[in-house]
Design goal:
With 290 residues, this protein is of the alpha/beta class. Helix content is 36%, strand content 21%. The protein has a domain of 181 residues: Rossmann fold (3-Layer(aba) Sandwich), CATH 3.40.50.150. It contains ten helices and seven strands.
């Protein structure tokens, strides 16, 4: 068993349960989305079809629809509760910005119910870290994009919640945090999936808390539970909890406990397919020598 494999049923349940209170707590997610939107100022395209892959409660979806009023924006999320919350909060907005052009799909990014070559932009804010097979996910996102289409996304890097990872070290035998891909590895995955000109960058953002319970409560409120196969299925014991607090308290700085997030940003284009002189397509394959 892969202890880091993500239980998608657990992800669906957690995010659906968190949906009603998500926006009040998801400070990091909203900030990263805003920074991604700023990056669109440098992208010279006006897409007529956009897939918001991992749309959550729809805040980013609404910003995209306002920026590109002629576009059909499809909001896709694995958690039906997120989509229900998004629909309930967008009544006035749908009237102002053409609600008939906005669609919702409840599905997994790793298996998109979307036709090949059908969208001009795929947008994904802090969602692909919930995918078990990231190379295959990028291949799937490449599939649904039209030629010259744009993928723009954000995700978390390996140093995300490094303080909590340190604090859990030695507490018990269970896995307590997801594993996150390195920025350079993600760039290689994009190239292997057929994308051209990937641009990757990273920044560290830190939230501060008064105590350990507040850190964990924030993660719970936004649905970011530990959903790995190696997680503890029961409650943490008193001794383990005391050890966790003791470990984290050693990291207190200026009276606060830090929670660091390594935010990775990326965008890449789907290029024209390469062909030989006689017009045959060149298909990139990989193999291993035995």
């Amino acid at each position: 068993m892969n202890e880091f494999e993500i239980d998608k049923k657990q992800v669906r349940r957690a995010f659906s349960k968190a949906a009603p209170d998500y926006d009040a707590t998801a400070v990091m997610q909203r900030e990263v989305c805003s920074r991604m939107l700023e990056r669109l100022d440098y992208i010279r395209m006006k897409p007529l079809s956009i897939l918001d892959a991992g749309s959550g409660t729809g805040w980013g979806t609404r910003q995209l629809a306002q920026r590109y009023p002629a576009a059909q924006v499809v909001a896709l999320d694995i958690a039906i509760g997120m989509l229900h919350t998004a629909r309930g909060r967008s009544g006035w907005w749908r009237k102002l910005f053409g609600g008939e052009k906005q669609l919702q799909l409840c599905a997994d990014i790793e298996a998109l119910p979307v036709a090949a070559n059908s969208v001009e932009m795929v947008w994904s804010n802090l969602a692909v870290q919930w995918c078990n097979d990231l190379p295959a996910t990028f291949t799937e996102l490449h599939r649904v994009l039209k030629v010259d289409g744009l993928l723009m996304f954000s995700t978390f890097g390996p140093d995300t919640l490094k303080e909590l990872r340190i604090a859990f070290n030695g507490v018990d035998e269970h896995n307590h945090l997801n594993r996150f891909a390195d920025m350079h590895d993600i760039g290689d995955m994009l190239m292997a999936s057929g994308f051209a000109e990937p641009v990757m960058d990273m920044e560290m953002l830190t939230l501060t808390y008064g105590d350990v319970r507040a850190v964990l409560q924030d993660l719970k409120t936004i649905g970011a539970h530990n959903a790995t196969a190696g997680r503890n299925r029961g409650l943490m014991g008193k001794q383990a909890w005391a050890r966790l607090i003791e470990n984290y308290e050693r990291l207190r700085n200026n009276g606060k406990l830090p929670a660091t997030f390594e935010v990775v940003y990326g965008h890449a284009w789907k290029p024209q397919p390469r062909t030989t002189r006689d017009g045959a397509a060149i298909i990139k394959t990989s193999f291993k020598l035995k």
